[in-house]
Amino acid sequence: MPELYYIDTMGCQMNERDSETIAGVLQSLGLRPTDDPQVARVAILNTCAVREKPEHKVFSKLGDWAKLKRARPELVIGVCGCVAQVMADEIRARAPYVDLILGPRNLSALRAGVERALSDDRCAICVTDPDELPDDHQPAARTPGVSAFVNVTYGCDNFCAYCVVPYARGREVSRPAGDILAEVQEVVAEGYREVTLLGQNVNSYRDPHSGAGFPDLLRAVGAVEGLWRLRFTTSHPKDCSESLLRAMAGTPAACEHLHLPIQAGADEVLARMGRGYTYAHYKSLVDLAREIVPGLAVTTDVMVGFPGETEEQFERTLAAFAEIRFDQAFMFKYSDRPGTAAEAMPEKVPEPVKQSRLQRLVALQNEIGRAVNAAQEGQVFEVLVEGRDGKSPEKWRGRTRGNKLMVFSGGQDRAGKLVAVRAVRGFLWGYLGEEDAMA
Ligand code: 5AD
Ligand code: SF4
Predict the structure, then answer these.
(1) CATH entry, 147-374, from 3.80.30.20, 3.30.565.10, 3.90.550.10, 3.30.70.20
(2) What is the pTM of this model?
(3) Residues 427/373, Cβ–Cβ less than 8 Å
(4) Which CATH superfamily hosts domain 4-127?
(5) How far is the CA of 380 from the centre of ligand 1 (A)?
(6) How far apart are CA 395 and CA 418, in angstroms?
(7) Which of 144, 291, 348, 352 has the most Cβ atoms closer than 10 angstroms to its Cβ?
(8) Nearest CA to ligand 1 atom 5
(9) Ligand 2 atom closest to Cα of residue 164
């Protein structure tokens, strides 16, 4: 029987991609995956530090794993990801039974670390160098499906006042375009049909050899034969240029979806956050994007209760949402992150006020999201089918180019195919549809 590994992944798509590398390295050591930590020889927690809540989860999960390790001292426990980077000392103090602590840029140390931990009952390895250049030639065991993630930049140089990412993932570096293209070709050859290019701020991408920017990269990747769909995330409004929008419009594989975090609607709050744009600029960018890329879906991230946010400033976030009408929004309560500029700001907004602002914003956005999808009833969408729907297995499930979920009834063997589907009913979560016989 081969030994087993278990990975618990929190956080964003970068972490999902990193977990594929963790899985690939563990498999190259002869381990096999399990979804039960009770039987694992190696258990890895890939952590997120972006807000307080996921960070609390790390310590409660490690508490559970401590019990497993008491029963089976041979269990190797690793903590990777953003909490490992920014709280390594606290992990060592509060969870001394952890064998490996690796920052998100230090997965090159994973293989040797696991090998040592497997052969030595008490080894403690901690590598947290936020400026190491990640080794992107390590093996990856990708999640099976139609869609694959490919990194284009690592780290972030923006230092938004609330954000832990520059501390957790280090200074921004771009991968050579040749390496990115080679990885895209590789995943397409493996059968993936959609690629999402990942970076904290993809639009500041620069090929280290030629100096070419993200629009050129998008065109080059879009030309890879066999790639049907191309997505990218995340775009920062200060670097999202007209030339990017034109490259999207001129690249058939590039999907009509832009994820453009707004964060707040009031200029004073945006300035205190250090975002580098005003609401008027943001709004004109969305207008331009919708004009250049017809049928574009626009999604966003936003937070309420940033230090000093007044009721009137919050109402400008509500007004921005009412005016722009996002297809979808990820909405958060601001939470203090150690070491960030906002942590030291006065005038923290009390928790009940944050809670009520979040509820008001979510209520508004739910209404808008539902109305946007309902207004598209009757339209035919190109859907990339992921497989059978979990809840109603007689139906298929996939995504539109706008990244909306479509659950639909249709013919046989649709998994992995592009199917034309008529949206019959629009909901907050997406659409219920029927395969379009006329297509
Ligand atoms: N508190 C709350 N939300 C945050 N985000 C980033 N940092 C914080 C924080 N300190 C949100 C932003 C970002 C998304 C990934 O998480 O909206 O775009
Ligand atoms: Fe979480 Fe940000 Fe790290 Fe992603 S980059 S895992 S969202 S802290």
Answers:
(1) 3.80.30.20
(2) 0.95
(3) yes
(4) Methylthiotransferase, N-terminal domain (3.40.50.12160)
(5) 35
(6) 15
(7) 348
(8) 50
(9) 8
- The number of the ligand nearest the C-alpha atom of 12 reads 2
- The atom of ligand 2 lying closest to the CA of 50 is 8
Burial of 137 (C-beta count, 10 Å sphere; 0-12/13-18/19+): exposed
User: Does this chain's domain 4-127 share its CATH topology with 147-374?
Assistant: no
76-80 and 42-47 as β-strands: parallel, antiparallel, unpaired? parallel
The domain ranges of the chain are: 4-127, 147-374, 380-435
Instruction: Give the pLDDT of the chain (439 residues) as one tens digit per residue.
Output: 789 999 999 999 999 999 999 999 999 999 999 999 999 999 999 999 999 887 789 999 999 999 999 999 999 999 999 999 999 999 999 999 999 999 999 999 999 999 999 987 666 788 889 889 888 889 999 999 999 999 999 999 999 999 999 999 999 999 999 999 999 999 999 999 999 999 998 889 999 999 999 999 999 999 999 999 999 999 999 989 999 999 999 999 999 999 999 999 999 999 999 999 999 999 999 999 999 999 999 999 999 999 999 999 999 999 999 999 999 999 999 999 999 999 999 999 999 999 999 999 999 999 999 999 999 999 999 999 999 999 999 999 999 999 999 999 989 999 999 999 999 999 999 999 999 875 5
The CATH code for residues 380-435 is 2.40.50
- Who contacts 421 (Cβ-Cβ below 8 Å, separation ≥6)? 380, 381, 382, 383, 398, 406, 408, 410, 433, 434, 435, 436
Task: At 348, list the tokens.
Answer: 């923290």
Instruction: Give dist(CA 228, CA 18) in Å, integer.
Output: 24
**Ligand 2 site, residue 432, Cβ cutoff 6 A:** no
